[in-house]
Structure formats: structure tokens, C-alpha cells
Write a structure and sequence with these properties.
This protein is mainly alpha-helical. The radius of gyration is 31 Å and the shape is elongated. It has helices at residues 2-9, 12-47, 68-96, 108-120, and strands at residues 55-57, 65-67.
């Protein structure tokens, strides 16, 4: 049982995943600090003189404050993290990894032409040999 666990832990993709989680958490802290200390003050300036931030209050209680600035900051935070993940991780990996070559697929027309040639006793287009009359062609 421990041998299987050891093999699971030592797989390359598990180690890579652990590194990605740690790096992602560290980077998220950087982006969160950026939005908290740079973007939020800028949004507060745009929002006016409200000491609670950019938003509106439903009643006189501070508990009913709808904080639009926090929502916009979260959206900016998400977009920054997604952009960095894409441009730092995904795009370079797509450039480095070879793209799988797709084999040309036989179309319906090609299959029908081959069937016609086999029935007519002519030479098949795809290189499958036609069997003598009265016998089935071997694939």
C-alpha cells in the first residue's frame, strides 16, 4: 500500500502540480496586494468622498453598504491572474510542445468511390486489392 502511494507522490505531474499551487498562491498574493493598495485607492478616487469605498448605501446602517469597488477589484484581480497564467505558462508551453499532426480523414466520397471501384472490379483508389470475381476482398 505504501509503495503505491510512493509511486503516486513521485510522479512528475503530481510534483508539477504541487509547484504550480505554491507559485500560484504566491502570485495571487502579489496580485491581491496590487489591487488592494493600487487599484482600490484609484477606484475610491473615482467613487467620490465615501469613506466606505466606491458603492452605495441602502439604509443608514454601514452593514447595508453595497461595495462596487470590491467587486471591480476582484474582477481586475481575476483578469490579472488569468493573463499572467496564460502569457507566462500556457502560451510558452503551447509554443514548446509539438502539435499533434492529424491524419487526413477519408471522406464519404472517398469511401463511396472505393466501394464503386470494388464492385466494378476496377483498381481501388486507396490501394486495397480487389479480389477475383466471386470472392470477398481481404482487408
Amino acid at each position: 500500500m505504501l509503495k503505491g502511494f510512493k509511486e503516486f507522490i513521485l510522479r512528475g505531474n503530481v510534483i508539477d502540480l504541487a509547484v504550480a499551487v505554491v507559485v500560484g498562491a504566491a502570485f495571487t498574493a502579489i496580485v491581491t496586494a496590487f489591487t488592494e493598495y493600487v487599484v482600490n485607492p484609484l477606484l475610491a478616487v473615482v467613487g467620490g468622498n465615501n469613506e466606505l469605498g466606491w458603492g452605495f448605501q441602502i439604509t443608514d446602517s454601514a452593514a447595508t453598504f453595497v461595495n462596487l469597488g470590491a467587486v471591480i477589484s476582484a474582477i481586475i484581480n481575476f483578469l490579472l491572474v488569468a493573463a499572467v497564467v496564460y502569457f507566462i505558462l500556457v502560451l510558452p508551453m503551447n509554443k514548446l510542445l509539438p502539435t499533434p499532426k492529424e491524419e487526413p480523414k477519408e471522406t464519404d466520397h472517398d469511401v463511396l468511390v472505393e466501394i464503386r471501384d470494388l464492385l466494378a472490379g476496377g483498381a481501388p483508389a486507396s490501394g486495397v486489392s480487389a479480389a477475383p470475381s466471386g470472392q470477398h476482398a481481404k482487408e
